[in-house]
Amino acid sequence: MNQNRISEHREFLKDSLRLKINFYLSDQHQGFPAPPLQKPIEAEQKIIPLPGKDTWGRFRGTDLVDAIDARKSERNFLQTSLTLEELSYLLWTTQGVKEKLAPGTALRTVPSAGCRHPFETYLIIQRINGLDSGIYRYLPLEHALVLERHENNLAEKLNVATLGQQFIATAPVVFVWVAIPYRSEWRYLESAHRVILLDAGHICQNLYLACQAIGCGTCAIAAYNQEEMDQLLGVDGKNEFTVYLAPAGKV
Predict the structure, then answer these.
(1) What residues contact residue 218 under an 8 Å CB cut-off, 6+ apart?
(2) How far apart are CA 93 and CA 70, in angstroms?
(3) pTM, two decimal places
(4) Which domains does the chain have, with CATH numbers?
(5) How many whole angstroms from its chain centre is CA 159?
(6) Which 3 state secondary structure label does DSSP give 213?
(7) Stretch (H or E) spanning 99
(8) What pLDDT, on a 0 to 100 scale, did the predictor assign at position 15?
(9) 196 neighbors 226 (Cβ within 8 angstroms)
(10) How far apart are CA 223 and CA 220, in angstroms?
(11) pLDDT value at position 92?
């Protein structure tokens, strides 16, 4: 039975003893420095500052009970562009840094196992006021963006990478969370792979709730072609790879 074959691969989800043992074998315990909080910026790349909290006044006051009650997956987006203030707010609520602690460690707006925060946020932008279409990356330490590159036929390539889910390719922006596993492996070795998946859920749920404050919707996506998606973002697929994504737009 397929069930028996598949069940053999479930052990990594419940091996708490290994988690304890791995801590004492980890690079952290051996004194290796923590990996950086975010990927470096290339010398030729220009940092694009994002609006700060002082511009988010109209997003405040959303009732949490109402936001949770109204939260649902949306697959039909208006052609309306999002503002840079709205994008800034969604990025801060999902991966914003509240306080930098020791090297390689920071408190953010979402929880993460061991405070490791293994994700980079890439953005596939098509309709954000003030930004050209292209592939961007969020810089949480600066609360800014960096343009990774422009891409011809972006919507078409995104549609292929997401297995023909056309509503994703037509969204104003797609959040793509890319894991850098070593950030968590530094502390937990292979046990990190379990908690990385948990961290992804924390991030996306914050996006769902934040969207309610700005009249937007989103839909969590785990169905995509791994190689096509990694290639579109320009990541190597080994030390950095796509784990989760979500389009966002007005509804």
Answers:
(1) 73, 74, 175, 204, 207, 208, 211, 246, 247, 248
(2) 18
(3) 0.92
(4) 23-250 (3.40.109.10)
(5) 19
(6) helix
(7) strand 97-100
(8) 62
(9) no
(10) 9
(11) 97
- Per-residue confidence (pLDDT) for residue 6, from 0 to 100: 62
pLDDT of residue 23: 61
What's the pLDDT score for residue 1? 46
Cβ contact 159:217 at 8 Å: no
CA-based nearest residue to 222, from 192, 197, 250: 197
- Cβ pair 191, 15 in contact under 8 A: yes
Nearest to 50 by CA among 112, 95, 113, 18: 95
* Local mean pLDDT, 10-residue blocks, the chain (251 residues): 60 61 78 94 93 90 90 95 97 96 92 96 98 97 97 96 96 98 92 92 97 96 98 97 98 95
What is the CB neighbour count within 10 angstroms for residue 10? 9
Cα–Cα distance measured from residue 250 to residue 239, given in angstroms and rounded to the nearest whole number: 34
Phi, psi of 173 (to 5 degrees): -150, 145
Task: Give the CA angle between residues 129, 132, 135 to the nearest 5°.
Answer: 115
Residue keyed to tokens 């969370």:
177
Instruction: With H, G, I as helix, E, B as strand and everything else as coil, classify residue 150.
Output: coil
Q: Rounded to an integer, what distance in angstroms lies between the CA atom of residue 95 and that of residue 110?
A: 7
DSSP assignment of 70-133: H--B-----SPPBPHHHHHHHHHHHH-EEEE-STT-EEESS--GGG---EEEEEEESSBTT--S
- Give the pLDDT of residue 190: 84
